[in-house]
Specification:
- This protein is an alpha/beta fold and about 200 residues long.
- About 55% of the residues lie in helices and about 15% in strands.
- The chain has eight helices and five strands; from the N terminus they run E-H-E-H-H-E-H-H-E-H-H-E-H.
- It has a five-stranded parallel beta sheet with strand order 2-3-1-4-5, sandwiched between helices.
- Helix 1 (about 15-30) crosses helix 8 and helix 2 (about 45-55) runs antiparallel to helix 3.
- It starts with a strand and ends with a helix.
- About 35% of the residues are buried.
- The chain binds adenosine-5'-triphosphate (ATP) and ligand LXEULUCI.
- Adenosine-5'-triphosphate binds next to helix 1, helix 6 and helix 8.
- It is an enzyme of class 2 (transferase).
- Pfam families: Thymidylate_kin (PF02223).
- Belongs to the thymidylate kinase family.
Length: about 200
């Protein structure tokens, strides 16, 4: 079976988690061995870093160093072995989030993030990135109805519109890899968009 590395991106509350389970089931029915994972996190070490990342105050460079340290461990222990075994890896957020949140959101120098990306990933990139795009206000309304906010989710709408712009820049720079999903639509309509993207690739 051919390996696939699929990442899910978007501002907080865009609907990624809602659709990961459904896609997992669809791929498994087609015979794929699916590994579900997430960032920050995905290994014991990276989940420990996630706790610090989400709940301790720090500057954007410290955020980036923590998240890329966790990513290195995650790649070595989970993602690369799964891909080598021909499995399909579904990852809730990956490096595009660092460019969107630490870069566009926090204003961090993108060249530092590019260097970290090169060092940590050694050329590994997702085969497909599903970018759940919707206005920051709509995402905030969905989050407010669903749960208590963490350190990132407490940011204002301007922050999330910058993050959204960061994703748009990453998508424009890698149009073959990115598929923009209109996440403002209903759950069935979003699911239909994802199915169309997968079918277009013969997946
Ligand atoms: N298309 C949709 N229309 C309306 N509500 C939705 C839609 N998709 C998801 N939701 C609801 O919005 C909330 C946030 O969705 P979800 O947790 O899937 O987002 P997320 O992108 O995974 O967020 P985060 O990255 O912050 O964990 C949930 O309550 C979910 O039920
Ligand atoms: C990978 C990554 C994530 N973030 C931010 C984005 C979210 O606000 C949180 C993760 O929370 P979730 O409930 O798991 O979506 O972390 C970031 O700022 N930089 C990153 O590289």
């Amino acid at each position: 079976m051919k390996s696939r590395f699929i990442t899910f991106e978007g501002i907080d509350g865009a609907g990624k988690s809602t659709h990961i389970a459904a896609l997992t089931e669809r791929l498994a029915q087609g015979g794929a061995a699916v590994v579900n994972t997430r960032e920050p996190g995905g290994t014991v070490l990276a989940e420990t870093l996630r706790g610090l990342f989400l709940h301790s105050g720090m500057d954007s460079l410290t955020e980036a160093l923590l998240v890329f340290a966790g990513r290195r461990d995650h790649l070595q222990r989970v993602i690369e072995p799964a891909l080598a075994a021909g499995q399909t890896v579904l990852c809730d957020r990956f490096t595009d989030a660092s460019f969107a949140y630490q870069g566009a959101g926090r204003g961090m120098d993108l060249s530092i993030l590019e260097t970290l990306e090169d060092w940590v990933q050694e050329g590994r990139q997702p085969d497909l990135t599903l970018w759940f795009d919707l206005p920051a206000l709509m995402a905030a309304q969905r989050r407010a109805a669903a749960r208590e906010a963490d350190r990132f989710e407490q940011q204002d709408l301007e922050f999330f519109e910058r993050v959204r712009g960061g994703y748009a820049e990453r998508a424009a720079a890698a149009p073959q890899r990115f598929a923009r999903i209109d996440a403002s639509l209903s759950v069935p309509e979003v699911a239909a968009q994802i199915a169309a993207v997968m079918e277009a690739r013969g997946w």
